[in-house]
Amino acid sequence: MFVLLESKSEIAIAQRTLESTLQRALPRKAVKDIGYPGGRVHSAHVHTDGRFWFWSRDFRGRKVANLRRLNWFGRFSETAGLGITVEINTPYEGRNDQAAGFFARDTDTGIIYLIHSGRVGGGKKGVGKNAFYVWSNEPVVAVVDSKGLPRRGILVMPIKGSAVAASASRYIDLVARFKSAVRAGETETIEFRRKRSEFEDYYSEARGRRKGRRSSVIDYVSRHGEIVDALHAWRKSRGMPKNARLVKNVFIDLGMTFGKRLIEVFEVKPSANRQSIYTALGQLMVHGNTKNCRMTLVIPKGDTLPKGAREALVRLKVQVVCFRLDKNSVKIIDT
Length: 335
Description:
There is one protein chain. This protein is an alpha+beta fold. The protein has two domains: 2-202, no CATH class; 224-334, 3-Layer(aba) Sandwich (Trna Endonuclease, Chain: A, domain 1). The protein has seven helices and 17 strands. It has helices spanning 8-25, 129-136, 164-183, 190-202, 224-237, 274-287, 309-315; strands at residues 2-4, 28-36, 39-48, 52-57, 70-75, 82-83, 86-87, 101-106, 112-116, 140-144, 150-158, 244-247, 254-258, 261-268, 294-300, 318-325, 330-334. Strands 6-2-3-4-5-7 form a six-stranded mixed sheet. Strands 12-13-14-15-16-17 form a six-stranded mixed sheet, sandwiched between helices. A hairpin with a 3-residue loop joins strand 3 (39-48) and strand 4 (52-57). The longest helix has 20 residues, at 164-183. The radius of gyration is 21 Å and the shape is globular. Mean pLDDT is 87; it is low at 205-217.
């Protein structure tokens, strides 16, 4: 379960920690102009690794309609000014749904995350929150505030840890690719509109977070998207039937279709504990119910399956593939 940080002191500590973490992860400083619709920040001191940049500014004391801390991210250019890929601005206190960013604590682990509402700007038709959710296929978590009311968002990164640079960079790149897809007309197709309608129907029902335990070294929850990306590349590298294609949507982590028929389905779980196995089997059986559909469970390398689980997987003809995470990469291991 995720709970929203609302006190002024907790948010201030989380923001300072986030900035310190990103400054270490993006160690080079550069002075750049940052352009945005209707204006420009001149001579901003940004932090960069040569590929991506981060900049933050305190807006307290200024007469603005929506008071919030600015956290801007984008792709870096050596030769030109910078454009904002995504703003993950955070409130100073309480809940502020006009700010696209917020901090939340995982009550199972105590880890605090930067979360993005998914609201992506850009001033172009098709750039918006639900379109981004559908296009990105990122897990959406529900965060509960002090009144028990939920707020949805995408986990961007934990505010500290060894893998934050990879998580932040991946998210910036994801938003940039989404904007490119919008410009290319990918969100205007009949198929995309159908997926968006399915998504909106699906999320009209209450949905909790993906269950899972955190390794003492690697945060599986925030890196779920990296695992799915690696799984996609791994499956493609093993060869595919002619005219088959890999797909993913709000219901499945990864699948392979032949025509309109699903012939393979994968479910990624951050743990091999009993609850995760039960949930995965239910998802595989529901979505892999076409004739001869190959079902695969993807779990962390080194996790031990509960007693009786392996026998059940064999009976149900569910294959097992493992993944291994380190600080900067994901490796898929065929067992």
